[in-house]
């Protein structure tokens, strides 16, 4: 049982930082609500260098990451692997929420 | 606590993934890590553009093309560099592109690599990079006569003399990149080839700076098997520095943007503290912007996770080289190579307050020359269209996936970046060679024609990166592409 749980956990982690996938180069022009648009701008300033456009680069792709919002918040706040942690001095909770809202929108786009 | 062997294996895997091992485990996805056998295939059908735009091939067969400009009639002219990383020296040339796609040589010369060209009041102005002979800005008339305007620019190293761009004041603006990755001459510069040619060359600050006295040990590629040497910042290879040591500012200097006013051969300093300010362009509002290629994971002072940047240039400002990246000091976890120590600053005190970048491009994207849309008929007026040469992983540092190899547009009001021209496909992207297709390889310049209705993309061609320090470019694989807005279909 423990082995099975560990296998699932390992697989999840491998998927999370494994080979990158991007969505179609161009979809329909996206519509963003105010929170998503704020998140989009914050994403560009804080996340885009390693995940350009949400796709893989220095880091893995995150526009297709099957993670619940709470897990994304945790990753942003605590960092993971080579990804640094974003402290509340860098990003407020509301700003992290905005980035998560934008990422969720990105995942809708690339399904 | 005791674990079964299988459980231990799983725990080890989890630990590996949660530590920097994750990056090391999956790195190796750079776009240049592939195979290529000439000739290059070219197919506009393999290139994606937004709905309502179309892609055409204008001309093929260039060797290391770098820039495009248009004469008074709107005819395109392309610079062939004459040099590529990988120590491939060819002939620097300025070529006219005829309507049928054939190429006619207008001028040839030395001081490679020729990195860009502009047209102004009946003549071409070319940035001669200066890997050999030092950088120059030259005037070339349509009949091929060449006149140097500025010479002996300190660009014998990693990065070159770039530009030029004509300002609203009629002056020529150009840039000179730094000699090194991050201020310290090291074995990576021997891999580049220039350290053997110019062993005393190093970065030159534009103003007096005071060093912290940080030195970096390395092998000595100039005298193999002789043990280690120690090198500080802003000094020749193998020279140590001391705390409080002052390095006098020089003009011209490294990592700076300059201006040449009409009639002058004496460059004026506009701004400094850039690493490699490769692209320069003026926005419709007359403000100067530059793209900067950020630090790599190489040499004696590697820095990790550094973006490429778009800056709005402020007269007299210092942009942070070599102790800041995008306005952030480098002595923090953010820029630490996984598994290594946090980098140290080499300056005792920063010579200024670093501005904030307008936009942050992908790490290792090599975001290069660019232009602003000015035509409502093309669309996106006021946005910057930036050619991304693409990563040179693993030489510049490992990546999990290809970065760049496309043209992006930037809303300079908020820093939002969107793809504009990219290769088709749902995978990780990358150059056409990696995808086995006939699309974009390595875009290096994006420039609107005088009408503003067509965006021309200079595609440098195939350049593979076989290993750290092993770069393999291919002659005659460069392409000139054109993007136009398709005419709306007539309604029945």
TrEMBL record, chain A:
<protein>
    <submittedName>
        <fullName>Cytochrome c</fullName>
    </submittedName>
</protein>
<keyword id="KW-0408">Iron</keyword>
<dbReference type="InterPro" id="IPR036909">
    <property type="entry name" value="Cyt_c-like_dom_sf"/>
</dbReference>
<dbReference type="InterPro" id="IPR009056">
    <property type="entry name" value="Cyt_c-like_dom"/>
</dbReference>
<keyword id="KW-0349">Heme</keyword>
<dbReference type="Pfam" id="PF13442">
    <property type="entry name" value="Cytochrome_CBB3"/>
</dbReference>
<keyword id="KW-0479">Metal-binding</keyword>
<feature type="domain" description="Cytochrome c">
    <location>
        <begin position="34"/>
        <end position="107"/>
    </location>
</feature>
Automatic annotation (TrEMBL), chain B:
<feature type="signal peptide">
    <location>
        <begin position="1"/>
        <end position="27"/>
    </location>
</feature>
<dbReference type="InterPro" id="IPR011041">
    <property type="entry name" value="Quinoprot_gluc/sorb_DH_b-prop"/>
</dbReference>
<keyword id="KW-0732">Signal</keyword>
<protein>
    <submittedName>
        <fullName>PQQ-dependent sugar dehydrogenase</fullName>
    </submittedName>
</protein>
<dbReference type="InterPro" id="IPR011042">
    <property type="entry name" value="6-blade_b-propeller_TolB-like"/>
</dbReference>
């Amino acid at each position: 049982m423990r082995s099975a749980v560990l296998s699932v956990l390992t697989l999840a982690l491998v998927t999370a930082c494994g080979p990158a996938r991007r969505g179609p180069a161009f979809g329909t022009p996206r519509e963003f609500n105010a929170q998503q648009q704020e998140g989009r701008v914050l994403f560009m300033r804080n996340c885009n260098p390693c995940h350009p456009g949400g796709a893989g680069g220095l880091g893995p792709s995150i526009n297709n990451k099957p993670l619940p919002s709470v897990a994304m918040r945790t990753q942003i706040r605590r960092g993971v692997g080579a990804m640094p942690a974003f402290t509340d001095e860098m990003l407020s909770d509301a700003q992290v929420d905005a980035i998560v809202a934008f990422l969720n929108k990105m995942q809708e786009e690339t399904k | 606590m005791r674990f079964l062997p299988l459980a231990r294996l799983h725990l080890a895997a989890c630990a590996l993934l949660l530590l920097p091992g994750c990056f090391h485990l999956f790195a190796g996805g750079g776009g240049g890590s592939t195979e290529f056998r000439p000739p290059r295939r070219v197919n506009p059908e393999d290139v994606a553009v937004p709905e309502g735009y179309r892609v055409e091939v204008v001309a093929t067969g260039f060797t290391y093309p770098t820039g495009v400009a248009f004469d008074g009639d709107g005819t395109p002219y392309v610079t062939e560099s004459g040099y590529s990383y990988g120590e491939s020296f060819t002939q620097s040339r300025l070529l006219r592109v005829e309507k049928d796609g054939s190429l006619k040589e207008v001028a040839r010369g030395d001081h490679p690599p020729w990195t860009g060209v502009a047209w102004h009041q009946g003549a071409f102005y070319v940035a001669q990079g200066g890997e050999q002979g030092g950088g120059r800005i030259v005037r070339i008339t349509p009949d091929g006569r060449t006149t140097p305007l500025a010479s002996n620019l300190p660009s014998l190293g990693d990065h070159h003399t770039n530009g030029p761009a004509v300002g609203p004041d009629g002056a020529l603006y150009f840039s000179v990149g730094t000699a090194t990755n991050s201020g310290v001459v090291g074995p990576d510069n021997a891999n580049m080839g220039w350290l053997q040619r110019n062993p005393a060359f190093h970065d030159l600050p534009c103003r007096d700076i005071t060093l912290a006295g940080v030195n970096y040990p390395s092998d000595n590629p100039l005298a193999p098997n002789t043990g280690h040497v120690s090198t500080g910042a802003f000094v020749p290879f193998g020279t140590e520095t001391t705390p409080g040591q002052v390095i006098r500012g020089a003009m011209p200097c490294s990592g700076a943007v300059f201006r040449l006013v009409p009639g002058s051969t004496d460059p004026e300093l506009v701004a400094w503290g850039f690493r490699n300010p490769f692209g320069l362009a003026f926005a419709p509002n007359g403000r100067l912007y530059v793209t900067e290629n950020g630090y790599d994971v190489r040499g004696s002072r590697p820095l990790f996770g550094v973006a490429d940047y778009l800056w709005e240039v402020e007269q007299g400002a210092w942009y942070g080289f070599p102790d800041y990246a995008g306005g952030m000091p480098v002595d923090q976890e953010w820029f630490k190579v996984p598994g290594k120590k946090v980098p140290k600053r080499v300056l005792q005190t920063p010579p200024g307050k670093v501005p904030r970048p307008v936009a942050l491009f992908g790490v290792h994207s090599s975001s290069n020359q660019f232009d602003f849309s000015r035509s409502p008929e093309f669309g996106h007026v006021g946005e910057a269209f930036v050619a991304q040469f693409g990563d040179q992983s693993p030489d510049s540092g490992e990546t999990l996936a290809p970065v760049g190899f496309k043209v992006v547009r930037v809303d300079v009001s908020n820093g939002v970046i969107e793809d504009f021209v990219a290769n088709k496909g749902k995978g990780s992207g990358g150059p056409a060679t990696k995808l086995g297709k006939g699309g974009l390889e390595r875009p290096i310049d994006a420039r609107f024609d005088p009408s503003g209705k067509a965006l021309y993309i200079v595609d440098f061609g195939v350049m593979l990166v076989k290993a750290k320090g092993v770069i393999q470019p291919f002659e005659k694989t460069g392409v000139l592409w054109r993007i136009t807005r398709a005419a709306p279909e007539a309604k029945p």
